[in-house]
Design a protein that fits this description.
The protein is an alpha+beta fold and about 425 residues long. It is built from 12 helices and 10 strands. The protein has a 5-stranded mixed beta sheet. This is Oxidoreductase molybdopterin-binding domain-containing protein. It comes from Streptomyces shenzhenensis.
Length: about 425
């Protein structure tokens, strides 16, 4: 016997139940928390936070003086995106320390806010049809770029901070170009949504739409309670990260940062580093005091100086921090050595000029670096031989390292082998 026909109403009901199990169905999303007020509050927090992140990120890029020399520029063919670049200043000495500390700490602090915001708008990614009009299509495209770009920027940033970068290609161009794509989508989205967001937060109107569940589940927490959980998560991340920009007890609270915890040693050389001599594959035979020579090249030719020769030159002291792109930094250390501008004068440059610095380092990025004339000319910029009253140890760049105020840590080259003075542009 044949199977009895299924009534049309029953078949339609079955299809409806199946559709509800798909993310394209409004009934799939049942949380009562989603709504324009919740999303608007998160959006306004991100509007302020991401704007600060973008500005500090651009400043961090400028600090590398990327248009000075190819060795500094990890982002070739930047074209119009480099319109804002300027000669990075040396004053105040803590400028890069502040900029990068804010950039990294704020970025980590905003992670719960970003994830909550993405969760709150995820139903919009599945709405059908994909585009109801040109304006709707542009909004959907900006939303996809916003979500994808935000995740990409935060993930690559966190991986770089954790010194465990695994994306193919250099972090610098990927993060730089990704930031411009993300921020362009962010601005477009903000222009479209800011008026409604302000109305929602002021409580003038709760606009119902794609974010509201048609048949929500019973609430287990209020929207304000959910915001409290998000804020608590951000405060937790802030409290376990911000200490990497300080010394002493504060650093020990930075349990989520690679340079948190106790100092890596005691004594004058017992402060933070990124690259050890072993990691950089420094050959101790090359850095021995009787074997190492600094090669100076400039307008009048080339000089070769031993460490003893350098120690007989006029020596000066500078109190300067070390600050790295990963956000960690040290307080001021007392460095003592020969001024870079005095070394330039030894090879015929009476006025400060650019310098190309080469290291004995064989492994890792930034084996070479370029510094601008204003950095060379600063009286605090040294080829340091000593720190905190003692010889540099191997991990801090013995027999000599560059130290420049307000420069990113990687431009304070360790294990210096050669300084070439002259216009690099």
């Amino acid at each position: 016997m044949g199977r009895a026909p299924v009534p049309a109403a029953v078949a339609a009901y079955g299809r409806s139940m199946r559709d509800q199990r798909l993310p394209t169905s409004p009934d799939f999303w049942r949380s009562p928390l989603r709504g324009t007020w919740f999303t608007s509050v998160l959006g306004l927090v991100l509007l302020a936070g991401i704007t600060v992140l973008f500005v500090t990120g651009l400043l961090s890029y400028a600090a590398y003086n990327p248009d000075l020399s190819p060795v500094n520029d990890q982002t070739p063919d930047k074209g119009l995106l480099g319109f804002y670049l300027f000669s990075w200043p040396t004053r105040p000495a803590w400028l890069y320390r502040l900029n990068q500390g804010v950039h990294v700490t704020l970025g980590i602090t905003l992670i719960p806010v970003l994830l909550a915001k993405l969760w709150s708008v995820v139903p919009k990614l599945f709405t059908l049809p994909p585009a109801r009009s040109l304006a709707h299509a542009l909004e959907r495209i900006s939303l996809l770029l916003l979500v994808g770009g935000g995740l990409f920027e935060f993930v690559t940033g966190v991986l770089n901070i954790q010194l465990d970068y695994v994306f193919p290609g250099s972090f610098y161009p990927l993060h730089f170009y990704g930031a411009w794509v993300f921020f362009a989508a962010f601005v477009a989205h903000a222009v479209l949504k800011l008026p409604a967001a302000l109305r929602n937060v002021r409580g003038l109107r709760e606009e119902r739409g794609e974010l509201h569940a048609p048949r929500p589940d019973p609430p287990t927490v209020s929207r304000r309670g959910a915001l409290g959980l998000v804020g608590g998560g951000s405060l937790l991340l802030f409290g376990t990260t911000v200490g990497h920009s300080f010394d002493g007890v504060a650093r020990q609270t930075a349990v989520l940062a690679p340079h948190g915890g106790s100092e890596p040693g005691s004594g004058p050389n017992g402060f933070q580093i990124n690259k050890t001599a072993a990691y950089a594959r420094i050959d101790p035979a090359e850095t021995a005091a009787d074997a190492w020579r600094l090669v100076l090249t400039g307008r009048t030719g080339t000089l070769r100086l031993s460490r003893a020769d350098l120690a007989r030159l006029p020596l000066y002291s500078s109190a300067l921090p070390i600050a790295c792109v990963e956000g960690w930094s040290t307080s001021n250390q007392w460095w003592r050595g020969v001024r870079l501008r005095d070394l330039a004068a030894l090879v015929g440059h009476d006025r400060p000029t650019d310098v190309y610095v080469e290291s004995l380092q064989r492994h890792g990025a930034f084996r070479h670096a370029a510094l601008r004339a204003n950095q060379v000319g600063d009286e605090r910029s040294l080829l340091a031989l000593y720190v905190n009253g003692e010889d540099l140890d191997p991990d801090h760049g013995f027999p000599a390292r560059v130290i420049v105020p307000a420069a990113p840590g990687v431009l304070n080259t360790k294990w210096v082998a050669r300084l070439t003075f002259g216009d690099l542009r």
